[in-house]
């Protein structure tokens, strides 16, 4: 549904006298039909500029893209007809009602009056706007407003929808409601490209993500793939004093254990830990839930009885950290 190669954009500053800002330095992305694809990155990473280029609102300086089956540079009008775009702040006016906005938006896409009114009614129902949609937009909560923005973005039934940070500033329940609506659009066959700087949103909502930093894609894949690439799963074992050498001896040769490390404690296994904390033996495995029972069997056969066993799964924050050298600032 989207294929980009080397898409880039710089902005002139101080009327062309300052150093140009390289907002996007060469973005390569592939978004398949029917997926929710997340562009994850910190503020200023180039997410908005990327979305605006793909939605024909900003002209790229270089690179190629095919969007919704049309060439971005050669056929921008075709791209525009096939897509929907919801900007970060949304676009509703305070004095008009959601229903009026929906009818107006449909009319702007050339839809006849009766059909526009019918579609507005359907959208009110589908996005749960019935309770408030005949009041002026200025009286809505942030979450209600975002649902109206979504409804406006798809009133012309595009096959591809761009959402720029759709849940920024919303409280968790409103965020969950917006995610529900986005999932419903996917279930109806729509492809959704969403930009976000929330790790939880990228992880929980998106089928695949591209991590963007300083105008480049630094990682692309499903959230699970990306987390696995970084570390696989980890299992933490807290052992009785003196048990560690025997545990390491039986665990290291196992082919499904890719690494064994000691975390915490003073490293000396003499029953006299320097900081009072028993060391944790951390094992790296491909799939912790299936490795766990085997692990316990091997330890039991060796006469080792762990005090504590815990599953540790890497997060997207670990991925971001590994690829960029710093954690993602989510404020
Ligand atoms: N019109 C413009 N003129 C000059 N610089 C710009 C312009 N638009 C964006 N930039 C700069 O380009 C860089 C990327 O901005 P962009 O808005 O694409 O990032 P973003 O990842 O969407 O961040 P945010 O989440 O804060 O919107 C930033 O350094 C920004 O200041």
Automatic annotation (TrEMBL):
Q: Which GO terms describe its molecular function?
A: ATP binding
Q: Which Pfam families match?
A: ABC_tran
Q: Which PROSITE patterns match?
A: ABC_TRANSPORTER_1, ABC_TRANSPORTER_2
Q: Which Gene3D superfamilies match?
A: P-loop containing nucleotide triphosphate hydrolases (3.40.50.300)
Q: Key word Nucleotide-binding present in the record?
A: yes
Keywords attached to this Swiss-Prot or TrEMBL record, sorted alphabetically, are: ATP-binding, Nucleotide-binding
- Which segments carry the region annotation Disordered? 260-279
Q: Where is the ABC transporter domain?
A: 2-239
What's the protein name? ATP-binding cassette domain-containing protein
């Amino acid at each position: 549904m989207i294929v980009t190669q080397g898409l880039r954009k710089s902005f002139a500053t101080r009327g062309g006298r300052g150093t140009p800002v390289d907002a996007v330095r060469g973005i390569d992305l592939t978004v398949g039909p029917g997926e929710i694809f997340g562009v994850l990155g910190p503020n200023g990473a180039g997410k908005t500029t990327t979305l605006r280029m793909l939605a024909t609102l900003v002209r790229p300086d270089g690179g190629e893209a095919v969007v919704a089956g049309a060439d971005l540079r050669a056929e921008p009008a075709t791209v525009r007809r096939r897509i929907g775009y919801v900007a970060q702040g949304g676009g509703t006016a305070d004095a008009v009602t959601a229903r009026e906005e929906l009818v107006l938006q449909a009319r702007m896409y050339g839809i006849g009056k009766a059909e526009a009114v019918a579609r507005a009614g359907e959208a009110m129902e589908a996005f749960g706007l019935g309770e408030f949609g005949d009041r002026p937009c200025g009286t809505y909560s942030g979450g209600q407003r975002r649902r109206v923005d979504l409804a406006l973005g798809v009133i012309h039934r595009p096959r591809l929808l761009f959402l720029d940070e759709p849940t920024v500033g919303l409280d968790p329940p409103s965020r969950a409601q917006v995610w529900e609506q986005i999932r419903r659009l996917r279930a109806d066959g729509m492809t959704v490209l969403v930009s976000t700087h929330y790790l939880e949103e990228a992880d929980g909502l998106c089928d695949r993500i591209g991590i963007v930093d300083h105008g480049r894609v630094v990682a692309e894949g499903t959230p699970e793939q990306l987390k696995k690439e970084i570390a696989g799963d980890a299992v933490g074992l807290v052992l009785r004093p003196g048990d560690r050498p025997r545990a390491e001896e039986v665990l290291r040769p196992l082919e499904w254990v890719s690494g064994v490390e000691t975390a915490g404690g003073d490293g000396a296994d003499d029953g006299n830990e320097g900081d009072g904390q028993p060391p944790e033996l951390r094992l790296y495995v491909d799939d912790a839930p299936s490795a766990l029972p085997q692990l316990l069997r091997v330890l039991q056969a060796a006469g080792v009885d762990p005090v504590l066993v815990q599953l540790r799964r890497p997060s997207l924050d670990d991925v971001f950290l590994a690829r960029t050298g710093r954690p993602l600032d989510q404020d």
